[in-house]
Amino acid sequence: MFLRIVADSFGRRPRHKLLTGAALALGMGVATAALSVSLDVGDRLAKEFRSLGANLLVTPQADSLPLEIGGVDYRPVNAGAYLPEADLPKLKTIFWHNNIVAFAPELQFSVQTARWDSSTRELKERDQNSFIGTWVNHRLALEDGSAYSTGIDKTNGWWKVDGRWFDETKRECVVGSKAAARLHLHIGDEISANVPDPSRMVQLYTSFVVTGILYTGAEEDEAIVTSLSRAQDVSRLGRQYRKLYVSALTKPEDAFAKRDVKSFTPAEYDRWFCTPYISSIAFQIQQELPGTDVRVIRRVAEGEGQILTRVQMLLWLVTGAALLAAALAVGASAAASVIERRTEIGLMKALGAGSGTVGFLLAAEQLLLAFVGGGVGYALGILLARLLGEKIFGVAPEPSLIVFLVVVALATGVTILGSALPLRRASRYEPAPILRGE
Amino acid sequence: MMAALHTTNRAMFWRIIRRLFGANRGRLFVMLLALGAGATVTAALLNLQVDAKNRLTTEFRVFGANVLLVPRDSGAPQGQAALDEAILNQVPRHWEGGTVRAVPFLYYVGTVRRMVRQFNPPEHVVLVGTHLDELGGLAPGWKFAPTGPISLEPRLNRCILGTRVASKLQSTPRDNLELFILPGSEAVPAGKDKSYPGDFGTIAGVVTTGGPEDDQVFTELDALQKLATKELGAPPGRVSVIQVSVPGSPGAVKRFINEVSAKLPQVEVRGVRQFTEGEAKIYNRISGLLTATVGIVLLLTALCVMAAMTNVAMERKMDVGLMKAIGGSVRRVLRLFLVESALLGLAGGAIGAAVGIFLSIGLGKAVFGVAARPRLIVYPVAVALTILVAIISAYPLRRLAAIRPASVFRGEA
User: Fold this and answer.
1) Interface with B, mutate which of A12, A154, A314 (most B CBs under 10 A)
2) Sign of CA dihedral A41, A47, A53, A56
3) Which chain A residues touch B27 with a CB distance below 8 Å?
4) Which among B390, B382, B389 has a CA at the least distance from the CA of B46?
């Protein structure tokens, strides 16, 4: 009998039910879309922020202080400490290795450059230039046998090359835009470099073919950039580098992460270690690469953390507003549908139904509506979230179970709350005046 | 006679409207609640969205300088700081509603030594002359310890040490230092001491940046300029580079670069691509996200309000039936309900939008730490939208025109 009344109620007034259901579905649709996007946006934006470049800098611990002005280190090549290139694959063995997006070692020093006339073999010009060796699209064999491709083109995404990057296996280089203008270098030209060796009579030059002009908007515009191994050969340093830029996905630092590591209890230490805070990633890199100083590039890391936190908060707010609007609308329509059924309630009571039965019946109807509406709304919201995600980030957010549960719970809660007040009033109705139409 | 009838008609019309409001308090409340909530959300989100986009561009200045002014031919930086300090005054200090920060920097390779009783070997460092008090504003990401340079006696030459220099020298604030400039840009003679006196400085703080600044010693610009003139015969009043932090959208920064380039032809004005490009990309993503979310929320808020309103409206059959039974024309009855809806929309919108704007002020404070500026244009827009939604949701009443009074009274429909 109970089920029949419920079924009858739906069958008899499909338009009313449809309207209430539609309000529910729409409201829950917004809620789902907003929740899905908000849950996902942190990760997505964190990835976007990696376009700002490295947020960690690894330098040798025992190094003398670099004398860097405008990206040029004024220390002689033989001064200061270097780090072994062979250690680099270890970076991908740390706990948060999946969060390390890219890294690139760098070796910068001053060279004598020379150009010979290609036909007469005569020296055309000689100059002093900044020379940088680094990785571009470098394939790194990892310990587990897999290969990983990384390099400065991935850490510094804003670097642009006219022409193409050098091939690491060939004697090629790219030249910074300003250096190219100063040296009158064009793509296809040859330039030779050498670090003067006072112990030798004849200086040996290594020649490079220019494959591209590099635009960075920074000091590297003045430099000649080639592969790390070629630069090492020119500098006669062996397989070493001086600086390592690491770009890592991190969680914005909160109050907990800003505390001193030494003050942590073991449990807190574990929590810190197992959260991708920039400080814990820096700590883990330092453990893997002995003799290094891992510093957080505060300019990038700090800005990223702050903006990410704000944007996330903003989106949660918008989500909150969406939930509120949905809740109010759903509640209002639930209330309305109870109010308009006074006659029915009166009739049921006149036929001997108790207040409890009436309330239960109406609540059951509303709940059924909530489940259906919530379910449809969830599907709608997921579609919407996919559309949004693909439009803005190019990647759709994964549908998550949590969102589904939250949305259905919300739909139920809101419907019950919305109908509770009118239901209570309905249960107090005296049947006689209602039936008389008063 | 006609005029009198007209007046009576109008008086009757408003009287019915008044009665309609008074008739069912519960229904009135539900409708007002739905409309008001919709207006609140609309106003709050619109205001917050406009404000957040502006605020975001300010937030980006956490990254520090995004524009550099350098000499046209900066072939050899050392000893050839070719930029005239007076250029600083020609940089606009306000740009499209935001404050531009411009700070000059002068670089020399030099040595620094702690002045203590036992002999300390001098440490080779990069000496930077700048306006110390403006550093914090230019680069909010830098961490100063203590926060902000401590004030010392004005005749003392204040220095801020990069954290690595500080740990290398094992120095603490208020220690005294000896500063020298080394001539020549080439390889620095290691371990060689200089015999002539340089300048003295007192440590006023330590800065941590994670960048090359950790290895530098910052002093006041004029002190380093004087030292350079004394030691190297450098022309006075020169700086190496002016770092500028320009607020505003990526477009505004581009316009700034163009304007200053045109104004100062002797200077190369260049955007720090690392930040200008990254910011532009992130700004576009975030603002797209915000616009899309807000747009969808607003649209669906309107739909939800409409659904709720329509539901309420459908129970007006009795009223319509009665009115028609006593001779009301369909048009007049419909007009009655439309006016009622519009009035409700106005009331709900006026209250809701006001609440929403106040809400957004508080929310702005919660998110950005600065109260959102209420934008007056938001209020009429939100109210108008609410009235529109209210009228549209009364539209299904059109179907009530088909009602036959008799069947309503018999309780059939």
Assistant:
1) A314
2) positive
3) 336, 339
4) B382
Q: Describe the crossing of helices A401-427 and A355-392 by its angle, rounded to 10 degrees.
A: 150
DSSP A327: H
Closest partner residue to B300 (CB to CB) among A30, A45, A336 is A30
| DSSP string computed for B335-400 | HHHHHHHHHHHHHHHHHHHHHHHHHHHHHHHHHHSSPPPPPTTHHHHHHHHHHHHHHHHHGGGGGG
Sign of the torsion angle spanned by Cα atoms B309, B311, B317, B319:
negative
Which residues of chain B are under the pLDDT cut of 50?
74-79, 185-195, 413
Helix (H, G, I), strand (E, B) or coil at A53: coil
Residue with the two structure tokens 């009301």: B328
Q: What is the rounded CA–CA span in Å between residue A210 and residue A224?
A: 9
Closest among A93, A92, A108, A102 to A246, alpha carbons compared? A102
* DSSP codes, B189-207: PTT----S--EEEEEEEEE
**What pairing do the DSSP bridges indicate for beta strands B158-162 and B199-208?**
parallel
Hey, are the CB atoms on B124 and A27 less than 8 Å from each other?
Answer: no
Q: Please report the DSSP string for A259-305 in residue order.
A: S-GGG--HHHHHHHHTS-BHHHHHHHHHHHSTTEEEEE-HHHHHHHH
| CA A43 distance to own-chain centroid | 4
Contacts of B109 in chain A (CB under 8 A): 67, 69, 74
In sequence order, the β-bridge partners of residue A109 are: A131
Q: Which residues contact A367 (CB under 8 A, 6 or more apart)?
A: A412, A415, A416
Give the Cα separation of B304 and B309 in Å (integer): 9
Report the C-alpha gap between A2 and A5 in whole angstroms: 5
Decide if B303 contacts B41 (C-beta within 8 A).
Answer: no
| Ramachandran assignment for A184, one of left (phi > 0), alpha (psi -120 to 50 degrees), beta (any other) | left
Where in chain A are the domains? Answer: 2-45+305-435, 55-296
Spatial CA neighbour of B292 closest among A321, A143, A325, A389: A389
Structure tokens given for A234: 């020119």
Size of interface A-B (CB pairs under 8 A): 264
Q: Which residue has the tokens 């006593």?
A: B326
pLDDT at residue A161, rounded to an integer: 92
Q: Determine contact, residues B221/B104, Cβ cutoff 8 Å.
A: yes
User: Mean pLDDT of residues grouped by 10 in chain A (438 residues)?
Assistant: 74 72 78 81 82 88 76 72 88 87 90 78 76 91 84 89 90 91 88 83 84 89 91 88 91 82 87 89 89 86 82 80 72 68 75 78 80 85 84 76 82 77 70 68
Report the C-alpha gap between A155 and A46 in whole angstroms: 14
Those residues with Cβ within 8 angstroms of residue A261's Cβ, 6 or more apart along the chain or in another chain: A269, A272, A279, A283
Residue B267 is inside which H or E element, if any? strand B267-271
> Which candidate in B107, B143, B296, B303 is best for mutational testing of the A interface (most A CBs within 10 A)?
B296
Amino acid B313: pLDDT = 65
Q: B148's torsion region: left (phi>0), alpha (psi -120 to 50) or beta?
A: left
Token code pair at residue B180:
């020298």
Q: Give the length of chain A.
A: 438
No. of H helices and E strands in chain B?
A: 11, 14
